Fold this protein.
Amino acid sequence: MGGWADWIGRSETRSDVISPGLLRRFCATLDRPVTEEIPQGLHWCLCLPDAPTAELGTDGHPAKGGFLPPIPLPRRMWASSSVSFDHRLQLGDAVTRVSTIASIEEKSGRSGDLVFVAIDHETRAGERVAVRERQNIVYREPASAPAPPMDGGPADLSEWDWRREFIPSEPLLFRYSALTFNSHRIHYDRPYAVEEEGYSGLVVQGPLMATLLLDLAAGELGTERLSSFSFRGQSPAIVNEAINLVGKRDGERIALAVLGENGREIMAAEATI
């Protein structure tokens, strides 16, 4: 492929406001009480891409070649993020996010060619930087066949101090896609997810699972206690299949994960207080 050097350094700026309505809808989606404290993870619902419907690609994402490069691989997903929470966001804040393409890297894996696009996001509330994030998006070749179910016994949760079993439902996926203005069809169009992208069902959003891990930590430590958080998707979570949200603390460091019922790791994460 190649030829992506001219895209590195491109940036775009978007603005938003943390409104009472957004906060209520975010908390309702997670079944958590509404307070004036802004939950960590709500920044993923701000400064969203808003391409017209006529400009969406076949997969439901905005068509390639706008801010993001036109990578000629059909499947794309949010692979990982590293987030620094520098200052607290507050209800009513006017926020601005500057997003800059930091790198584009081609690789080959067991599933074929891959292209990783790293994007740096800086979210400001007034003159203060509130959240810094390095997001990694991966582009992949077409799926050859649906992935077979993984064998294994029940997940061993004995090493984890914090545990919460959770079943992601279709309404939850719909609501989170609405909160983030995400029209990727793998989250609501089952025939597309199975027949075109090779999944066994509707796919749970990566940032939704990351938000659930942040909510788990908030339940143990209190709201807005983390100074950093990073996550990496390891395998897909499928709607209506139970997952385990787990964590453990070692001083100022926290290990977190999303595990399937058969023990497979869906997401690995870590945080600092």
About this structure: Strands lie at 11-17, 75-85, 94-109, 112-125, 128-140, 162-166, 228-233, 243-250, 253-260, 265-272. The radius of gyration is 18 Å. Residues 206-221 form the longest helix (16 residues). Residues 80 and 88 are 22 Å apart (CA to CA).
